[in-house]
Amino acid sequence: AGLHRLWKDSFIDWLAPRKNTHLLDVAGGTGDIAFRFIKRTKNEASVTILDRNENMLKEGKRRSIVRQEETDLEWICGDAMKLPFQNGVFDYYTISFGIRNVLDLKKCLSEAYRVLRPGGRIMILEFSKIENQTLNKIYDAFSFNVVPRLGKIFANDSESYQYLIESIRKFPSQEKLASLVMEAGFRQVKYRNLTQGVVAMHSGWKV
Question: How far is it, in rounded angstroms, from Cα 200 to Cα 85?
Answer without folding.
Answer: 27
